């Protein structure tokens, strides 16, 4: 089941966030997204009463941007990422968006494959976009028309 994220979900979301990203978002950033960002739509994926994934989608006029998306490491490669991507597209369509975009590390091959299988194409490369333990890494800017 995919439902709106609440403040009560943040401990579980932050656990997934920390295991998924080197430069992860903190509680204050999520509180801002939940309560102050007028463009943010946050959702969690719940299986057997456990949060296993989430996304933060920004709806800005006729465009949707995936600000953040992750699946818990123990639940990856089981098509739950695809389920989130399908839900994102539904939300974008409901909000009359014409495009969806995202950024992804060039080394995150499994995410790139998921996005390409969801119809995204690489538009360009953002140099030194992501902070890593070894410095910085490029990111792909990807987009899909809907």
Protein architecture, described:
This protein is α+β, with helices and mostly antiparallel strands and 146 residues long. Helix content is 30%, strand content 42%. The protein has helices spanning 10-20, 27-35, 80-94, 109-117; strands spanning 2-4, 40-47, 50-60, 63-71, 99-105, 121-132, 135-145. The longest helix is centred in the middle third of the chain and has 15 residues, at 80-94. It starts with a strand and ends with a strand.
| Total number of helices | 4
**How many extended strands?**
7
Q: Trace the largest sheet across and list its strands.
A: 1-2-3-4-5-7-6
Q: Kindly report the average pLDDT value.
A: 96
Structural class: alpha+beta
Determine the N-to-C terminus distance: 24 Å
What is the overall shape? globular
Helix content: 25-40%
Low-confidence stretches: none
* Radius of gyration using CA atoms only: 15 Å
**Beta-strand proportion:** 35-45%
Largest sheet: 7 strands, mixed
Instruction: Give the helices and strands as they follow along the chain.
Output: EHHEEEHEHEE
Structure, briefly:
This protein has 4 helices and 7 strands, in the order E-H-H-E-E-E-H-E-H-E-E. It has helices at residues 10-20, 27-35, 80-94, 109-117, and strands at 2-4, 40-47, 50-60, 63-71, 99-105, 121-132, 135-145.
